[in-house]
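Two records follow; treat each independently.
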Amino acid sequence: MKLYIKYMVSVRCKAMVEEELQKMGLPHVVVDLGAVELLADITPEQHETLRKNLLKNGT
């Protein structure tokens, strides 16, 4: 599953997204500026939690 993340424009943003994915236990293979490749689909609840955590961190 590929997720696109708005405003992910710096290396700091990339590190923050990767950190949040690891905290949530979401396996991923690629983190690029603006996109994340997950190894499995996520539930709507996981998606919302990830969204809230990234907004809280300013990403």
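The next record belongs to a different protein.
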Amino acid sequence: MSTNVRSGSERCPCMSGLPLDECCGPILAGERKAATAEALMRSRFTAFAVGDRDHLLASWHPRTRPRVLDLDDTLQWYRLDIESTSGGTPFDTTGEVVFTAHHRRGGIRGSLHERSRFERLDGQWVYVDGVVS
């Protein structure tokens, strides 16, 4: 995990209400796989929030993964709203998650709304792509 990761007893940045060490922390650390597409989406948001490029790249489908991932370190990702999910259960091979991720840069707030697609690849969920609206 990135050196920006907070204490595991703090609330997880994905807004699940759980402590980081009970939610996305083990997924980012590679100790547990995401059981659902939504769980992977939450872990990816947390990775953006803490600057964990390795998890973002590892959880990206090889077909669509960028060679280099430049994160904007001036953005502070602070809230994730999951709006809907389709498929993406432990019994599915594909899934979709619609979400809004909120961020701040300085004193200015912004958000990103995306419909993300996920696939199960070799037994684990990976991010395929998304449509930003």
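Discussion point: The first helix runs from residue 25 to 28. How would you locate this feature using only the token line?
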